[in-house]
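Input sequence (41 aa), recorded before submission:
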Amino acid sequence: MAVVVDPINEKAFDFYSKYGFEQLPDSERMFLPMKVIGQLV
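Predicted structure, token format:
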């Protein structure tokens, strides 16, 4: 399980990257595993 986002521009991509989101292969979508989110809370 993960949170998946679809950044609308480079600024959004940079924002999500700053918080640990990774880009899915062959896609512009990014994801952050729930395991990582659980560690942040």
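Checked by second reader. The two ends are 16 Å apart (CA to CA).
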